[in-house]
Amino acid sequence: MIEISALQSPIHSQLAITGSKSESNRLLLLNQLFENALTLENVSNSEDSQLMQKALANKTDVIDIHHAGTAMRFLTAYFSIQEGRKVTLTGSERMKQRPIKILVDALNELGAEISYQENEGYPPLTIIGTKLKKNSITIPSNISSQYITALCLIGTKLENGLTINLDGKVISVPYIQMTIQLLNKVGIKAAFKGNTIQIPFTEVIQPQTLQVESDWSSASYYYSLIALSKNSEIKISTYFENSLQGDSALQVIYAENFGVISTFENGVLSLKHNPEFQLQQAIELNLINTPDIAQTIAATCVGLKVNCVLTGLETLKIKETDRLVALKTELEKFGAIITITEDSLSIDGYQDDNEIPTLETYNDHRMAMCMAPLAQLQPIRINNEMVVEKSYPTFWEDWKKLGFEIKSI
To answer: Domain Enolpyruvate transferase spans what residues (predicted)?
Structure first.
């Protein structure tokens, strides 16, 4: 357990954040599919991306990706087209509770040979690589975008390409758009129009160097900190105003609701608080396109004692933990009165709470990081703080640079 407390205010500091985990994992798999034609710079140093790289280089018949959900989805698709190779793809106990049936069903319909070793619909999986001959698939649209991205990435190597028809209202659109834009960037003429994704067979791509933009989900914790820290300024790199990442919506969300101003100069993002901003008593946000920043926004609201209604959160229940239940449990320790449904979280008032809260992380990196900005207001304690290694291994070192005292209890 650690205890975090603020030593200085206002904060003036500059940090460099590692590359986006989402972009990195997509590009790492593409690079493997196209025989290392890409030279990648600023690749994420997250545990997830490291596990992805190790799995792609692994020549054994059992591959353990631990807690890495993105790797599980992407690699299920990847190994399904490695003709003649048989692998067992497994993970942590929590990973064995995370559903993967929709992706497995889709791949098997395309001609894959994937079966379950333990429980139907869940890892571990036995995958026998084969040639997928079918070139179209219809899947529900209200599923994890990682299932869809996994199909998009391997579709580039199916001899007739792949058409993906999405049935119903599409959620997490920015993550699908990121995949299509990255494919376009390396020269693959993929398209996403309406509810249809077209992925053409592509034999080779031209050798090129790509810089991975830093992770906007990781930037969210600094937006929250600025919202809670008047007269502070934090500069972080490497970020671009016209980002491929859906979580860059932070710029608008935090400007309109919390008064945080974003400016860019030569890849450096500067965050400051607008001194003329008037905080609302309550806010309403639909986060269907940006579920990974929902925890940060909820914690910001608690820090500012703002009521809120956050909707579009249906995918939070199948993440590293049930994030809706976890948020309710932990934020109530700050006196917040919280109601959750299957796809929403509401805060409707606050009670006094003067104790130093001890917060659980549930093996969820974002539960640890979203709470950290609240230490600007009062000391907090966090159990199992090293879960941050999943996406942001240097998180606590960076917070020390900002002037926070972090000590073991």
So the answer is: 57-399
Q: Report d(CA 260, CA 301) in Å as an integer.
A: 14
Digit-coded pLDDT (tens) for 168-204: 988 778 889 999 999 999 999 999 999 999 999 999 9
Average pLDDT of the residues of the chain: 95
pLDDT in tens, 18-31: 999 999 999 999 99
All domains of the chain in start order, with CATH: 2-18+213-408 (3.65.10.10), 21-36+60-200 (3.65.10.10)
Percentage of the chain exceeding pLDDT 90:
88
Residues whose CB falls within 8 Å of the CB of residue 248, separated by 6 or more in sequence, listed in order: 216
Nearest-5° angle of CA 132, CA 39, CA 249? 80
What gap in Å lies between CA 151 and CA 78, rounded to an integer? 9
What residues are labeled active site? 292
HEC profile of 137-172: EEEECCCCHHHHHHHHHHHCCCCCCEEEEEECCCCC
